Amino acid sequence: EEVCDMINKKYSEFLPNLQASEDLMVQIDTVSKEMEALKNCIESEVQQNIHVAVNEYLKLKQQLEKNTMIIKMLEHLKQFHSAMEDSNKALQEKKYVDAATHLEKAGKSVDSLKDWKTSQLPLLSSLSSELTVQRENLIYHLGDEWKRLVIWRLPSTKESAGPKAFHKIELVLSDACIKDFEPKPTPLLCSVLQALAIQGDLQNKIKLFSHVLLKNMLKPLVMYASLELTLSEQQGEGTILGLECLEEGNEERSTPSQVYKKLLLVLKTLHSHLLDVSIGDKKLSAILGELIWEEVSKCIIHDCLVYSIPTNSSDLERYNSVIRETEVFEEALKNMEYLQDDSTDLLKYARDVNCHFASKKCRDVIVAARKLMTSKMHNTVKISPESKLRLPKLPPPSSEVKTKQEVVKEEVSMENSKQLSACSLRLPACRISESVQQLMELAVNTLCEAVGSSTQCALQLFFTVRNIFQLFYDVVPTYHKENLLKFPHLAAVQHNNCMYLAHHLLTLGHHFRAHLPQPLSEGVATFVDMVPGFRKLGAQCFLAQLNVQRAELIERLSTAHNFCNLDDEDNYIAASKAVRQVIHQLKQLGTVWQDVLPVSIYCKAMGNLLNTAITEIIAKIMMLEDISSEDGEHLHTLCQTIIEEGPLVFIPLAEENKNKKYQEEVPLYVKKWSTFKELVIVLRANLQEIVDRWADGKGPLAVEFSSSEVKSLIRALFQNTERRAAALTKIK
Fold this sequence. Notes:
By secondary structure, this protein is mainly alpha-helical. It has 26 helices and 10 strands. Strands 1-2-6-5 form a 4-stranded antiparallel beta sheet. A two-stranded antiparallel ribbon has the order 3-4. Residues 426-555 form the Centromere/kinetochore protein zw10 C-terminal domain.
């Protein structure tokens, strides 16, 4: 209870204080609300004032910018006006660089005005027009000065072509001033050139000048040896470069030394009187050099250096002087700043003389070879077994140099070995075209040029020689196709030509291989692979001619009425004529091929054709079913003519007494000769003689004819009698 009383007492004391605190909190809340309302009011008023201030600021700023722009425009207009006045004043005083510079400033002022998008202003259009007029006026004055300082005097009428078209052409340059003991362009010229550069018109002027210079002076001096360059000084005119056409001499082309001398005189004079002027970071000579050098170098290469390339490898050493002259020429151009590069196409061309020599040599060789191949084939030369290809004596390669002991040892080892015949690998006597002999000499000479040459040069020359022979293989049979079929003599010569080439191609590569650079020395240098093709080509050509002759023989014999009913006079005359024509054709061929074909080929060819004729005659006689005694006699007479005159067509040699041997050897070359002789015997023989020659299948008749063929002959020659029947029973 005491505790409760104490608590109540304390609560009664605290209650008034609690009531006072609550009142205070209400007052504080009321004040806070009043402060918040006041704050919102102040903020609203401040924002309104700031907005007004900002708007005022923007208006003032725009006005300031507009005033600033007007001030700058006025400044540019002032600058333009001043620049135009200064330019006009400088132009009147012939201070062209100042005039051009002031115009550039005026142009920049106009450009600045355009950048402010005020191009619609009538004033801006007027300013642009005034600037254009002043520029054109300056360019006109500069062009007028250029024409007085650089004058071309070209002929009013030109010749159609040639050096005379450039006679009396002159280039007049103003007198140069002397500075440091060297001529330099005059201040007026320098001023004109620099002003043109500032105006952007210098490139066009120099480009036009370079075109005229190339066309009327530089190129003609390279192309025509008869054009001489003159340099003179004329009081009141200046320095004159002129061209004069002299009487044309024997020299069709100028030497590189002559060309370089003339060109340097022109370019040095231009440099001292016109081009030794700095334009920006480069000399005017460099600008001209960029415009002309490519065409000048091409012209020098195609119209001078090409013709100076040696045609023989022995002259290559002397060409070093041309290379040195080219180096000096280019060095002089670099010193005058016409050239910037260290190495140009011109110098590269001169230094690559070995490649150009090989290319030129190859072209010349192919042209010469084609000319030989398309020349007449009937001009022939005699080739004997002793004939040798004229090969040069080449020094032995280092790998083949043998010591004395090695040579002695080799001789001892070879002492007892078997030796080839002296006639081994020798061509038989025959005739070949003179052009083919010359073609082989051309190939040998070209291979000689390859010996000692650079690898690339040697490769080009070697494969050019291969191309020569390939060209022969492709061109000659086509170009001479009709004549090879029409003329037996040419067919025989072409056969020999191919065999001659094939013969020498066997060893040609071996002779040169060791003296050529790699890879030629390692086995590439060979022509052996071409040998079978040439042999086949020669054989095909001659066989085609033999086929033509065979066809003609058969055609002639077809007019003999199959050798039947020869008791009729007309039939006998026709048969006799056919036989005579065959003999005549063979004799003609024998004469045409005499001393042309090798003896062995001659005898085989004539034997083949004679065999064709008698084979055809044998076949026609064997087809006869009835041969009267009179027919048999006529047949015997005709066949006997062939037996007597046939061997006489074998005349391979011009000396008649040496041909008898080959006429006696007819059976070796005419396969059916013995058969034909047996047939002739049978045509005159009686039944008993025929039976005796049969000799139970062991006689000479049995060797040439079968039993059925002999029986057929007996039935055709003899009437049906008991004796004939008895004879037929013995032919078994």
